[in-house]
Design brief:
binds adenosine-5'-triphosphate, 23 helices, Beta Polymerase, domain 2, disordered C terminus, about 10% strand, cca-adding enzyme, domain 2, alpha+beta, binds magnesium ion, two-stranded antiparallel sheet
Length: about 450
Amino acid sequence: MIRRLIDRVLAKTARSPLRKRPKRYRGSEQGMPLPDVSPAAVRTCETLQQGGFQAWIVGGGVRDLLLGLKPKDFDVATDATPEQVRKLFRRSRIIGRRFQIVHVLHGRDTIEVSTYRSMQPAAETDEHGRVLRDNVWGTQAEDAARRDFTINALYYDPVSDTLLDYHDGVKDMQRRTLRMIGDPSSRYREDPVRMLRVARFAAKLGFGVEPKTQQPIRELKDLLHHVPAARLFDEMLKLLLSGKSMACLQELRRQGLHHGLLPMLDVILEQPDDERFVQAALAATDARVLADKSVSPGFLFAALLWQPVRVRWQQATARGEHSIPALASAIDSVLDEQAGRLAIQRRFIGDMREIWMMQPRFDRRTGRSPHALVAHPRFRAAWDFLLLRCDSGEAPAELGRWWNDFSQADAPEREAMLEHATPGGTAAKKRKRRSRRRSPASESGDGSGAESVETGSPG
Ligand code: ATP
Ligand code: MG
C-alpha cells in the first residue's frame, strides 16, 4: 500500500517539468561556432568549473550564436551563490538587491553571472525564522522552467561543447518558432512584459509565434498598464536597439500592444505624414546597431518625439509666440504627456531637450552665433538630428551640408562662409534673423540631403 503510494508520487514528480531530463547535444554538431563564443564567457565558465561549480552560457548568447547572429552579450548561469562567484573573480561585483547577480569583468567585456533561480519567489522558514530552504536559488531545471521562450532556455558549456535543452528549444529553433515555456496565459499574468518580448523576438529573429503563445495576448494586453514605467522603458529601449526597430514596432502594432500604452508609439505608428522622419531615425539607429556603433537613447527618443514637438511649436509660433519660448513650452507639454506612461530616464531627457533646443540655432548663420554653436559639446548630436530633418525634407539639404562644411573649416574659411551665407547689409541681416527666429522649420528642402546620418555618441 505504502509502496504503491510512493510509486504514484514518484511517477507524478517524474512528469513534472522540473524533473524533466534535458536533451543533450554536442554544441558543434548543432552549429555552435566555437570560435565566436566570447573568450570572456569561456574564461568565466572555466574559472567557475575549476572552483567546483556548474557554469553554462544561457539566453541570448546561445540562441544568437546557433542562429548565426552576433550576440549582444553573454550571460552565465551557475549553481554558485553570488558571494561564491565574487570570491572567484578579482574584478567582479554583486549588483541588484532582490535578485542578486554578479558582473564579472574581463578587459572591456562584462559577463553577467546569475545563480540558478527557483520557481518560488520567497524563502521558507521554520517557527524560529531559520531558513529551511532558500527558494530564491534553485536547480538548473527550475532555472530553465522560469525562462520565457524555449529558444532562450538552452544551456551551453563551452569547455565540454555540451548543449542542454530542457524544453525542445533546438527543435523550435529549427522550425523558427517562438514558443513560451509553460502555460502562456499564466506566464503573461506573472510578467506582462513577456508580451513585449514576443513582439521583439518575433521581429528580431523573423520567427513565427506558436499559436498557443500568440492567442492570449489580445485578451491580456491591458495588463501592461500595471507594469512600472521604468521597466517599460528598459524593454522599449531593448526593442528599439534590437537592430530591427521598425520591424519590432510593426509587430507591436500587429499584436495590438502599442495602443494607449505608449502615447509615443501611437504617434509614431499612426501619423503617416511623419513616417519619413521616424523611418529615417530608426533606419539610422539600426545601421549603427548593426555596425556595432554606439547609439544615444536621448537622440533616439528626441527623434521619436520630434513630430508632436514640432507641430505644437509651429502652432504656437503661428499664434504669434516667440520661437524659442514656444519651442521650450512645446517640449514641456510633450514630455509631460509622455512621462505618465514611459519613464524616460532623466539623463536622456536632458539630452533630448538640448538636441531640440539647438535646432532653431541652425537657422542663424550670422555673427558669433555659428561659432558658439559648433563649439557646443552637443553640436555633433544636434547636427546629426538636423541631418535627419534634412533627410525627411523638413529642412533644406543645403543647411545640413553648410554646417558640416562650417564645422570643418578653419577661421578664415568660416568668416568667408558667414559673409557668403548672409548677403545684404547689417539691417537686412537683422531683419532676416528676426524672421527666421519666428518661423521654425518653415523651409522645405528636397530631402535628398544627408550623405550619412549618425545618432551621435552615447548619452
Ligand atoms: P538580447 O539579445 O536582447 O539580450 P536575451 O534573450 O539575452 O536577448 P535578455 O533580456 O538579456 O534577453 O534576458 C536574458 C535571458 O533571461 C533570456 O534569454 C531569458 O532566458 C531570461 N529572461 C529575460 N527576461 C525574462 C522574463 N521577463 N521572463 C522570463 N525569462 C526572462
Ligand atoms: Mg541578453
